[in-house]
Amino acid sequence: MSVQSDIAAAATDQRFGLRRTVRLPGPLKLDGGGALAPVDIAYETYGSLNADGSNAILICHALTGDQFVASSHPVTGKPGWWTRAVGPDKPIDPDRHFIICANVLGSCLGSSGPASVDPVIGVPYAMRFPVITIADMVRAQAMLLDHLGVAKLEAVIGGSMGGMQALAWPTIFPDRVRGAIVIASTARHSAQNIAFHEVGRQAIMADPRWRGGNYYADGDAPAAGLAVARMAAHITYLSEAGLTEKFGRRLQGRDSKTFGFDADFQVESYLRHQGISFVERFDANSYLYITRATDYFDLAEDHDGSLALAFGRTRARFCLISFDTDWLYPTRESRNIVHALHAAGREASFVELASPFGHDAFLLEAPEMNRVIDGFLRAGE
Amino acid sequence: MSVQSDIAAAATDQRFGLRRTVRLPGPLKLDGGGALAPVDIAYETYGSLNADGSNAILICHALTGDQFVASSHPVTGKPGWWTRAVGPDKPIDPDRHFIICANVLGSCLGSSGPASVDPVIGVPYAMRFPVITIADMVRAQAMLLDHLGVAKLEAVIGGSMGGMQALAWPTIFPDRVRGAIVIASTARHSAQNIAFHEVGRQAIMADPRWRGGNYYADGDAPAAGLAVARMAAHITYLSEAGLTEKFGRRLQGRDSKTFGFDADFQVESYLRHQGISFVERFDANSYLYITRATDYFDLAEDHDGSLALAFGRTRARFCLISFDTDWLYPTRESRNIVHALHAAGREASFVELASPFGHDAFLLEAPEMNRVIDGFLRAGE
């Protein structure tokens, strides 16, 4: 296998439009001590870089998200996951911005991850892929920006795990980012956050089909374990009130209880569907690696536990957005970040938005969020 | 197999003290339409019934609890699960009360459940065991009281699923109970409650060792699936703040992260232990049946959705206790019950107690809870 440097391989898929992957030579030094080479990064861009290179916006996706922020997904055929915020006349607008969204390191939509072929031995890495961190993801994104000729970002924007990246960006590359918008996120994973992820990992590893991660050869993946992992995680993305509003105790397509173990309740049927449809689009080993990366995330850790110190070198303006019913990364996490930013003398705005939809609110129709993003970006342009 | 009527089989286990099981002829008519016969009930009693039969207290255990409320557990050897509230000089005192605690129908500590032998075919019921409800559990308890010669209860007391039974008791047997103490419980399972249980059930059923429930012959039980189910459920028993206080992001027996998938964090190690130790004492099929019973619980359902109507026939005094950090059955659920009781013209007292420990607080040291229970009982004696 030849490692080609700095070449963007453009492949056109007639059904789904342009898919872009670049193989960068690396090596990418990793927090865990090792290095990765080559580094594949799959990404989408929208709009074009202006003459003074001042209009680039990097969008960072969430845990199981992808680069198809405003393009249809090649597997599911669904529209981009954030077309509510990205597109013509939206706050992040290809007519005004050069928009970049890359599949994170460790994922399975084209960027290097456990399903990628280890060039040394010619078979997929599986669990030989190095454990990566949020900072490693950020450094890989910076390599992509170098490749694209983007010296500096107007803004980095992300929700959930994407927000962790947006938060980490100015701490790692203080001179390369002017603004950071951090939505429904946190500066460190709590014990409860880790606990939920550990349930998911154990569900995958308990599936006999996982086989220590070596399931790529025959393609018989640990689908059942991954589906259970997704179901557990999915509950944390929704609010209790939202679930009650959406499903309550309504029965699934029948008038009375079956006194059996079929999906009697709509919420059971919905959750099962979430689990089953997830395994069609996501790799179980990638789920292990990316949940691990978020569990390891603690921005204050390398600064004697002080978040304010972590922001000491940053120069970006920050915008924090939380949702009142988000119990995965509650408002207090955003507030802690804002306090630390202010303690560090940084410019930071913060708004808590009302929504019945819990953590997932940032992915749904949220006109207020759009107004906040638009206002923050225009103020910096 | 002969069905012996009304005979209490007493077996002495030298290590663990007296274990009592009674085989009642039944049939026990079930909400699901069928009937169960015979009905085995394993139970413990403490103290003795007084001359006028006015001092009987029935304690109802939680989901995976047992009859060993103040006796050591035969499998784990651990002391009774509620010795903080039950015992000499405790609010529920064998010197004053005749205390009864029975393993619920569907469980696996001696009462009839899926692991019991179906007398018709001579092998364990497994998934042929009928799906049961909280009301079925209560009716089985009433059959035990008949057997023990207890006409009327001074009080029925329970936390969590035990609280559902305590709440249902006066609605099913209005003349047989004078007081009901309902702790950290709810009058109906919410969509979120059902969702978490469904994750657990799917984890068990996804385990290839489950085999449609037919694992008793070779004893190769779906331990991995059951452990994952327990891990997911266990998170809901603890508060986010409690987990942070107990574990935070502290690492397990090492100074730095391993950049691997071992239990790096203490909370991971703790959760894994909870899962592994649970499978030693609990049957996976029982877990399916009992979670189903709680999901089916909705006291208002048979009364046009009106909880006040559900309490219309009750004569008992009620005492509701909730804990401020319980997010499984939050305080608002108890408050709803109290409002309905008051709307029905019933006597009901209510207190929300402060605790950092979430739902599990009722099982831990809670002097305030003890004072409330003691005061309520003495006021009715």
From TrEMBL, chains A, B:
It catalyses: L-homoserine + acetyl-CoA = O-acetyl-L-homoserine + CoA. It is an enzyme of class 2 (transferase). GO terms for cellular component: cytoplasm. The active site is at residues 160, 326, 359. Pathway: Amino-acid biosynthesis; L-methionine biosynthesis via de novo pathway; O-acetyl-L-homoserine from L-homoserine: step 1/1. Substrate binds at residues 230, 360. Keywords: Acyltransferase, Amino-acid biosynthesis, Cytoplasm, Methionine biosynthesis, Transferase. One of its GO terms (molecular function) is homoserine O-acetyltransferase activity. Residues 55-365 form the AB hydrolase-1 domain. One of its GO terms (biological process) is methionine biosynthetic process. The keyword Acyltransferase applies. HAMAP family: MetX_acyltransf (MF_00296). This is Homoserine O-acetyltransferase.
